[in-house]
Design a protein that fits this description.
Order of helices and strands: HHH
Largest sheet: none
Helix content: 55-70%
Number of domains: 1
Distance between the termini: 64 Å
Structural class: mainly alpha
Number of helices: 3
Shape: rod-shaped
Number of strands: 0
Length: 50
């Protein structure tokens, strides 16, 4: 299915663009650092009421 003829078609070009976009997103998302989440507002209000 995926041969040189397929990638010459419009669908094949769109598939290649999609693959490159997904690879780029995966590369960029691997560089994102996560921080510790802040406590939800409802939880802090519950603690203050108690």
């Amino acid at each position: 299915m995926y041969d040189k003829r397929f990638f010459r078609t419009t669908l094949g070009k769109a598939a290649m663009v999609s693959i490159v976009a997904m690879a780029g997103f995966a590369l960029l998302s691997s560089h994102v650092t996560l921080t510790a989440p802040t406590p939800p507002l409802a939880f802090t209000q519950l603690v203050e009421i108690a």
